[in-house]
Specification:
The protein is α/β, with parallel strands linked by helices. It has helices at 47-56, 61-75, 161-169, 172-180, 195-208, 221-230, 244-254, 273-277, 295-304, 321-331, 333-343; strands at 11-13, 24-25, 36-45, 87-96, 111-114, 123-132, 137-146, 152-154, 186-190, 213-218, 235-238, 260-265, 280-288, 310-313. The chain has a 6-stranded antiparallel β-sheet with strand order 6-7-3-4-5-8, sandwiched between helices. The protein has a 6-stranded parallel β-sheet with strand order 11-10-9-12-13-14, with helices on both faces. Strands 1-2 form a two-stranded antiparallel sheet. The model has no long low-confidence stretch (mean pLDDT 95).
Length: 344
Amino acid sequence: MIGYKYGINRVIEPKGVLPQAALKISNDTNIYDNEILIDVQALNIDSASFTQIEKSQNGDIEKIKQNIIEIVENRGKMQNPVTGSGGMLIGTVEKIGSKLVGKTDLNVGDKIATLVSLSLTPLKIYNIKKVYSEIDRVEIDGKAVLFESGLYVKLPSDLSENLALAVLDVAGAPAQTSKLVQAGDSVLILGAFGKSGILCSYEAKKRVGPTGKVVGLVAFEKDKEYLIKTGFCDEVIVEDATNTVKVLNSALHANDVKEFDISINCVNVENTEMSTILPLKDEGTAYFFSMATNFTKAALGAEGAGKDVKLYIGNGYTKGHAKIALNEIRESKVLREIFEKRYS
């Protein structure tokens, strides 16, 4: 039995849309001939999604577990109905559809991380074993289905599973940064000491060279101290990313009262669109990796402020993103130590 390349055959409601846009999909573990069944060990929930769930349940772990289970039972996938976002998973290949045998480099038993969102991945959770609130991770007993079009990466042998999962979860951010940032650019990074932000800070600093400048924005003084020590940012400012006026003034002051070429949004809270856009010069670039972004607010806000800037949606995939992100960890001892301390 052959399904569609993009998993359209699994859509239950509404018909005619792709799995990501669907309200409910089939998480039946009897796979089609062009699908792969995965025995799931862990989910990395998208930061904006996990933050919303955690706040709605007042940090109660058992209630967080139940909320996640209810979402998956109702939707057949882990797609937060409030944020619309998902995350990614690691697991072991349990079965490969007959039509994919010989067309994939995978074998039964391979440990992989999926590089497609949980918001479109058929998922079944039998049990949530542990919740790691500080790193948005959930250990589970479960199964997932990867479509023929689904992206994945075999877990590297030189990095721990938890470390690789943490990096791959946000691999799109530093990879896009590597393509957007040029030598001599001035770059503002909002959420510069978070999981994606620290990778972007490292990559941006590498790309701007001695004639460019990287300014990082963090929410807490302690994060400023740590970030300065890494050397990944030339200046670090402490501001609430939702306070546009304060962010604008502090950011421009840190950049010698000049507007920026590029701003990168890696925060996990709402209402930071204009804090990303206003510090930019005309024809500058705003890259919104955060899934808490309201793109209507960004587009209309830029228009209202008379800002002729390029607005990039945070596509989690770009060619070579897994390799770029993992190589950053291998290149930088400081970066690796930060990720091992936080996520391993």
